[in-house]
Amino acid sequence: MGRPPSEAAAPLQRTDPSGSDGLRGRARPPRPGRPPATLRAVSESSLAPSLLVAMPQLLDPNFKRAVVLLIHHDGEGTFGLVVNRPADVTFDDLVDDLELDWKGDRHTPLAWGGPVQPNTGWVLFGEGGPSELDDANELAPGLSVAGSLEALRKIADRPPASLKLMLGYAGWGPHQLEDELAQGAWLVAPVAPDVVFGVDPEAMWEHVVRSLGIDPATLIATPGVH
């Protein structure tokens, strides 16, 4: 599995007043895999960056009709963020917990990034974000990711128009994603900032499937993939 982020690029963390590890009510992560040691270098894999679209035979409830922004993929593991599922905590809760002086829209989307380490956070942002973020990584023109509290504080001072805050992430161990792809558990689509920021989360799965020239009604579940 990949190493945890370096201290300088450590993901922002939301404390839980109950004193437990992670957000209250979250299940423990069912999948292995950690984010890369730094988010400044996207792997040269042909898979990352891209969008993964869950097929009906993927039985893991964490990924039912999920669209995952795949950020890093190599022989040691895979790291991504679910981009079409809202978080079960509010934006105000997050800002208050982290004591952020948020100068933008307090209706900024707060999304559930995946089942792994749900007390960590990640920032997806488009054009107009701070240019001096040390740990930011551009995935595509108009789409960057950062994972430190320092980055979030800089963004809070001047939030760009295109912005998502993510809690938790999706991780796969070595060759696990390849196995799931071979079993037909995922479709792979090009990374698309206009989809990540501009499509309603409830409509995103169908939107991406149709963008591949596939009618969602024709997708029939085969023997399940867990």
Provide structural commentary.
By secondary structure, this protein is α+β, with helices and mostly antiparallel strands. It has one domain: VC0467-like (3-Layer(aba) Sandwich). Helix content is 18%, strand content 25%. The protein has 5 helices and 10 strands. The longest helix has 11 residues, at 201-211. The radius of gyration is 17 Å and the shape is globular.
Average pLDDT score: 79
Helix/strand order, N-terminal first? EEEEHEEEEHEHEHH
CATH fold type: VC0467-like
Measured by DSSP, the beta-strand proportion falls in: 15-25%
What's the end-to-end separation, in Å?
19 Å
Gyration radius (Cα, Å) is: 17 Å
**Low-pLDDT stretches:** 1-10, 14-33, 38-43
Structural class: alpha+beta
Assigned CATH class: Alpha Beta
Q: Please bin the fraction of helical residues.
A: 10-25%
Instruction: Tell me the number of structural domains.
Output: 1
CATH superfamily: VC0467-like
CATH architect. name: 3-Layer(aba) Sandwich
Number of helices: 5
Biggest beta sheet attributes: 10 strands, mixed
Strands, count: 10
* Shape verdict: globular
